[in-house]
Structures are given as structure tokens and as C-alpha cells.
Amino acid sequence: MRSLAFVTAVALLAGACGPSQQQEETVNGTLVQSKGQQELAALNDYNRAIGLKRAIHGSGKQCQRIDRSAFVQRYGTLDMWAVSCNNGRGFALFIGKDDTVQVRDCRGLAEIKLPRCPAWAENAKVTR
Q1: What pLDDT does residue 125 have?
Q2: Which of 7, 8, 31, 104 has the fewest CB atoms within 10 Å distance of its CB?
Q3: Secretion signal: which residues (predicted)?
């Protein structure tokens, strides 16, 4: 597991650019537990992609550009996010309330009894 320091730093920088529309228990319809999770959920798509991509790279995996990202569900105490990358790979990111993150390839999650990624991430296509 890697720290979401990258995501938090991006969120703090993005937050300095304008007013925040955070609510106490939900942000954009997403239930959150920690400040880092709140900041990630509040980011626009562009800045969230930057933070998630850094978390993916920090785990040793490759993603040149994130084409799509979305909150998927709560899994225990973790927030599950999914991304599709332009290299045809899809990833699930499980983010803990202590702002640690575990990155998994979307293909094969069911075999290890983890929630599946949405079809758009599981079947990510190579894009330019």
C-alpha cells in the first residue's frame, strides 16, 4: 500500500484555486471518511486523474493517461475507485481512511474475491 500523499497534495493545490463545495459526510454523492478521501472526491476530473495516476505509478504500474475515473463503491472501510488508461489497462484503487492506497488490475478481481470494476474499466481500450 502506498500513501495518497500525491493525491492529497494535488487536492490541496486544487483547493487553493477556488471555493470548495464540500459537505460534511458526502461529496458529490460519495460517502467519505478522511480528509484525503474528501479532497479526492471533490476534485474535478482533470485534477483527480493526476492524483490517481501518481498513485498508480507509485505502485509500480503504468498508465500514461487516464481516460476515465469514477468512484465505484465502499468496500469495508475502503473507497473503491476505478480508472481506465489509454494503454488499455484498467485499475481499481482501494483507498483507506488512513489515506493508504492499494492498486489492482481490474482483470482478475473476481478471482481474488474483490468487487469487480465497471465494464468500461475492466475492458479498457487503447486510445491515443
Answers
A1: 87
A2: 31
A3: 1-22
